[in-house]
Fold this protein.
Amino acid sequence: MERPLIVAKNLQKRYQMGEVTVHALRGVDLTLHDGELVVVLGPSGSGKSTLLNIIGGMDKPSEGELYFDEISLHEADEKALTNYRRHQVGFIFQFYNLMPNLTAYENVNLAAEIAREPFNVDELLEQVGLGDRKEHFPSQLSGGEQQRVAIARALAKNPRMLLCDEPTGALDLATGIQILRVLRDFCDGFKKTVVIITHNAGIAQMTDRVITLRDGRIDQVQVNPHPVAPEKVVW
């Protein structure tokens, strides 16, 4: 197993909704390693998105400790978290959040321009099957094509970790398999950490570990010694 990249200790997150306190996370202990592909499963309200947001530096825990490569994220100020998000983490969401007035190439190049060691934009678009669509605007692309642009954009800055929130949720089967292939290849080819949160338990077949959340706690952790190829995932 590679060295730890993320270490979370007793992560708790509470939200105040009027007089009601909502416990989104209730003491999560978690370690993520360099070069592993992990899926986080759980029903709606189990804390999956909250955990992803905290690991990605978009939110801070109410209690607990969070380390990225021994950097204390739970103690970091907003400037440090912005730097962390900019250079270390790539985000892929179910809804693509593309700039409508920019072409596919320009959307991806936005991320490359702020990176220290970016990937080549043309090569990325070829890798996700959009080499011949790079001059098209989002309105001229299908939903699956827009998601592939969003993935290329997340990969462009060459992040240490890729966080994916339901990346295949709005896609058809064939496109979903293509997206999973890109994620698996990114993890294996560049030894990057990839975390996928999803309701689709079938995706777990292609990952190295499966983490199940329930009611803000880790209910189960399973190691998958023989991940299947994305093309063989049973949806």
